Amino acid sequence: MKAKKKPHGMKQRIREERKREERIGLAVIVAILSIIILVSGFIINSLLNQPSTNQPVESISEPKAAIVDHLSLTYPNQTFIETATTILKQAGCTVDYYPGEQVTVEFYRHLPTHEYSLIILRVHSTAPYGKLFTSEQYSASKYVYEQLTDQVLKVSFYAETPPFYFGISQFFVMDSMIGNFKNTTIIMMGCNGLKYTVMAEAFIEKGAKVYISWSDSVLASHTDQATTHLLQHLIIQKQPLKQAINTTMKDVGPDPAYNSLLIYYPLEAGDYTIQNIVGNPIASSVEMQHKVFSQKRKTDNL
Length: 302
Description:
alpha/beta, 43% helix, disordered N terminus, disordered C terminus
């Protein structure tokens, strides 16, 4: 016959309760230590993966310029393109060239997204408001909404004579161009760009800084010559815009066929200089290097 177990006494229950509390306390300590280790590891990993202070804090990007050569389809001038490209590169710009076949409605729609500092529009344009030609043949069934809202329209080289192409109006610039220009200088080489200011106003409202164009119709050969002189005075000689345009007009004179003048909008942009147009890449680079060096010294002294 088995002996009966004696019931646990008070001391036994106290000892078991203490052991239980000790186990709970140990589990809590282990959990806290685990959290501390995880947090410490995260902090150390973040510190190790921070960018080196020897690297530039900000990227230094070159200013960009574009030559939109719609006239290459009707009045090609490779000498002008090469000369303009060379001058722009002397200003520290990277230069993108767009031949006429690439100048479509969609090209204009996305033009602000490229963030050009200067855009040369060697394009046909129509009287009286300087609407810009594309190389895209007109179709009544295409860009229907844009046609109904007068953003795109049918244009031709010779007064309602085929072939017809799409042209873009000031309403397209304001309502359908994606994004905004970044204080961009626009040189519109075509006819009637500033016979009225509506197209210039649209570009300014879209973020451009200044719009340079002609007061009336202009020959392709004359606008090529004048724009070359303008770039030389503005970029190489670093003349203010008003002075550069006045000097250009003294060099080449008004258009010999239409007596049109090269002018700009708005008038308060007359003091604009090449530093306003493309900045100063060399100075910016030196300034950035000084900023990085100063930051490194502060870090070393910590």
